[in-house]
Amino acid sequence: KKKTSFKDEL
Amino acid sequence: MNIFRFAGDMTHLISILVLLLKIYATKSCSGISRKTQELYALVFLARYVDIFTEFISVYNTIMKIVFIASTLAIVWCMRGHRVVRRSYDKELDTFRHYFLIAASLVLALLVHEKFTFQEILWAFSIYLEAVAILPQLVLLQRSGNVDNLTGQYVFFLGAYRGLYILNWIYRYFTEPHFSRWIACVSGLVQTALYADFFYYYFLSWKNNAKLKLPA
Known about the structure:
The complex is a heterodimer. By secondary structure, chain A is low in regular secondary structure. Chain A contains no helices and no strands. The termini of chain A are far apart. Chain B is mainly α. Chain B has nine helices and no strands. In chain B, helix 1 (3-26) runs parallel beside helix 3, helix 2 runs antiparallel to helix 5 and helix 4 (97-110) crosses helix 5. The A-B interface holds A 3-10 and B 5, 9, 12, 50, 54, 56-57, 60, 63-64, 67, 113, 122, 164, 167, 175, 178, 180, 183. Chain B: GO terms for molecular function: ER retention sequence binding. Chain B: InterPro entries: ER_ret_rcpt. Chain B: The chain crosses the membrane at residues 56-77, 98-115, 121-141, 153-173, 179-202.
């Protein structure tokens, strides 16, 4: 499962 | 990536550059809370533990390294630099920030997205960042008039999370499964803590007067 995109933020 | 988030990251970067400029140019850290710097170092170390395992983009990795390195450098400078550390307002910077760390840790253990080490560290970093500015705001109130660079540093630091709130609103409407209420609620609290600072900062700008927070 693709990692939650949320952690793409700083 | 959207314009709000990019503007937020750049504002955050500017706040760190302004702080570095202030310390480097004046060789002084008067008016700066070392405790807030230490809390921010903890925020970045806790939040970016995935820097070696999760590659998201070159930009993301570089910014994480810059934030961690610059904040650690500032803490080192305020503790170790023989000239700068003499100007540290030790007797004014007395906020008991260990309580903030403990409270954030307890809250992260209770409220998180998933009960995994990384997610709890991430939630801890989000909660801690929301309150990390408190020692700095208390120090500003105690130290009377605030020098321009310090005022600008706090202003940009507060503005960056406000831009992130716009970013979350934008992503909420443009991405189907976007939901991050932990960061949103925490971001709102964080930005709200700056409300009175923003008010006095605006007044000082409007009246072209020295920034002064009421004790």
